[in-house]
């Protein structure tokens, strides 16, 4: 088994409580691996986005899986390169900024026209669809081994402006960011903050405040 070639891949899914995950190769193949498949006891637990070195093996059903797993030696180099933004990610971020400006412009117009309450569901649907799209792209980048990813701050920002229902659906369906505890803690604060702000806006004091902004 040691004669098998050493391959590289990126952890695209990891469930820490069960000790297993999947590593994506350069040709987008997803290979199962378990914490016991590490060549030596690792100093830390794997995380989504980690680069791994491994060899191929076959289980009793002749399914391929990653064996003799180890963290890539150039871990520090990976950390530095992850800060570089690829042209693809830069273009997506530009589209995100354009959407954000358009969203707030339409939101301001609806407030000034006194139709904010009627258009709230539309704004939440629009923000949710866009947020789900961003999660889908980030998941694809993670599984393809891209070192340049969408900033987590952008995902949280679109959740904050009303896209958190779409983010919640994306986390469940795509199994993305659900096991990253710091991200989940921030996400819960985002949902709480957005919900409290919306409840205030549709309350009597909030409605009175919006009425003062109506000019049409």
Outline of the structure:
This protein is 53% helix and 16% strand. It has 216 residues and is of the alpha+beta class.
Structure explained in plain terms:
The chain is of the alpha+beta class and 216 residues long. Helices cover 53% and strands 16% of the residues. The chain is built from six helices and five strands. A five-stranded antiparallel sheet has the order 3-2-1-4-5. A hairpin with a 5-residue loop joins strand 4 (51-58) and strand 5. Helix 2 (87-112) runs antiparallel to helix 3 (116-143) and helix 3 packs across helix 4. The termini are far apart.
Our estimate of the beta-strand percent is 15-25%
- The average pLDDT value, as a whole number, equals 84
Number of strands: 5
Distance between the termini: 75 Å
- Residue share in helix: 40-55%
| General shape | elongated
Helix-strand layout with pairing:
Elements: E1 7-15, E2 20-24, E3 30-34, E4 51-58, E5 64-71, H1 75-81, H2 87-112, H3 116-143, H4 152-174, H5 181-201, H6 204-213
Antiparallel strand pairs: 1-2, 1-4, 2-3, 4-5
């Amino acid at each position: 088994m040691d004669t098998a070639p050493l391959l590289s891949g990126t952890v695209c899914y990891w469930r820490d409580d069960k000790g297993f995950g999947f590593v994506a190769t350069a040709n987008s193949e997803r290979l199962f691996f378990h914490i016991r498949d590490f060549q030596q006891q690792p100093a830390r637990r794997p995380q989504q986005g980690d680069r791994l070195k491994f060899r191929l093996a076959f289980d009793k059903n002749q399914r391929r899986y990653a064996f003799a797993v180890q963290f890539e030696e150039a871990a520090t180099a990976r950390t530095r390169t992850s800060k570089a933004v690829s042209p693809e990610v830069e273009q997506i971020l530009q589209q995100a900024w354009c959407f954000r400006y358009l969203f707030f412009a339409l939101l301001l117009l609806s407030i000034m026209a006194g139709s904010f309450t009627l258009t709230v569901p539309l704004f939440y649907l629009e923000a949710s669809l866009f947020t789900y799209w961003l999660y889908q792209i980030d998941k694809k980048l993670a599984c393809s081994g891209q070192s340049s990813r969408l900033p987590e701050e952008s995902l949280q920002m679109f959740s904050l402006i009303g896209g958190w229902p779409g983010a919640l659906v994306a986390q469940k369906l795509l199994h993305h960011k659900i096991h990253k505890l710091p991200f989940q803690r921030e996400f819960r604060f985002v949902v709480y903050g957005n919900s409290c702000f919306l409840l205030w806006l549709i309350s009597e004091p909030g409605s009175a405040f919006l009425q003062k902004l109506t000019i049409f």
